[in-house]
Design a protein that fits this description.
Number of helices: 7
Order of helices and strands: EHEEHEHEHHEHHE
Radius of gyration: 17 Å
Helix content: 40-55%
CATH topology: Rossmann fold
Number of domains: 1
Structural class: alpha/beta
CATH superfamily: NAD(P)-binding Rossmann-like Domain
Largest sheet: 7 strands, parallel
C-alpha cells in the first residue's frame, strides 16, 4: 500500500483526489483546516486528516518528520494548496505578491523540501504541483499578475528537483488545468460552457496515474489538462 500526502484536501480538487486514492487502495494523509467535503472518508482506516499551517516552515517540517516516523515511508506528495487573485501590474502591490507567493509557492516548497530528502533516501517518490495556464501564457496572465508569478515558480521548482534527482526514481511533475468545473466557477462565469472545462475527478485520475506503476516512465512532466477551454 502506497502512502500519499494530499494538501488542500478539502477543496474541490482535493476532495475528489482523496476519494480517488482511497477507492484505489492507497493510504491517504490529508491536510486541511476543514473536513466539510470529506465526510465520505471518515471512518476509513486508511484515511487521516491533519490541520497544519503549511505557511510555517518549521511546523510543516515537524509534521513531515512525524509522518515519516509514523508510517516509515511517504511515497507521494500531492501539493494542491493554492489561491487566486486578479489584478494587472498597476493594481498589484508588493503585499499582493507576498500573499500569492506564500499561498501558492511557500506552502509547496515547505512541504516538498523535507519530503524530497526522505524520498531520496528511500530511492522512490513522486511530488506533484498544480501549475496554472496564466503562468505559461502571458495573454491570460497579464490581469492575474501575482497569481501568475507565484504559480510560475512551481514550474522552475519542479525542474530543479528533477535535475537534482536525475537518474533516480524520484520525480516531480506539474499538472496544469484550465478552468476547473466547480460550483463557484459556474456562478462566476454563467455564460461559459462547463462542458469545455476540466472536472476535478478527471484531474484526480491523472494524479493517480502519476503515482501508480503506469506513471513510472514519466520524467520532467508538465501535463496540460485543458479539455476544450
Amino acid at each position: 500500500m502506497k502512502t500519499i500526502l494530499i494538501t488542500g484536501a478539502n477543496g474541490n480538487l482535493g476532495s475528489a483526489t482523496v476519494r480517488k486514492f482511497l477507492d484505489q487502495g492507497y493510504r491517504v494523509i490529508a491536510v486541511d483546516s476543514s473536513s466539510s467535503h470529506l465526510e465520505f472518508a471518515k471512518g476509513n482506516p486508511d484515511f487521516s486528516l491533519h490541520a497544519v499551517n503549511l505557511t510555517r516552515e518549521q511546523e510543516t517540517a515537524d509534521f513531515i518528520s512525524t509522518l515519516i516516523q509514523t508510517y516509515g515511508r511517504i511515497d507521494a506528495g500531492l501539493l494542491l494548496v493554492g489561491g487566486f487573485a486578479a489584478g494587472n501590474i498597476e493594481a498589484t502591490k508588493g503585499s499582493d505578491l507576498g500573499s500569492m507567493y506564500t499561498l501558492n509557492f511557500e506552502t509547496a516548497y515547505f512541504t516538498c523540501r523535507p519530503l524530497l530528502q526522505h524520498m531520496k533516501v528511500n530511492g522512490y517518490g513522486r511530488l506533484v504541483f498544480v501549475g496554472a495556464r496564466p503562468a505559461l501564457v502571458a495573454s491570460q496572465g497579464k490581469d492575474l499578475v501575482a497569481y501568475s508569478l507565484s504559480k510560475s515558480l512551481l514550474f522552475k521548482l519542479s525542474e530543479l528537483i528533477n535535475e537534482e534527482t536525475k537518474g533516480t526514481n524520484v520525480t516531480a511533475s506539474v499538472i496544469v488545468p484550465s478552468t476547473i468545473d466547480t460550483i463557484i466557477n459556474r456562478k462566476s462565469m454563467p455564460d461559459a460552457n462547463p462542458a469545455d472545462w476540466v472536472k476535478p475527478e478527471q484531474l484526480a485520475d491523472i494524479l493517480e496515474m502519476i503515482c501508480s506503476d503506469q506513471g513510472d516512465p514519466l520524467r520532467q512532466s508538465i501535463l496540460k489538462v485543458y479539455n476544450n477551454s
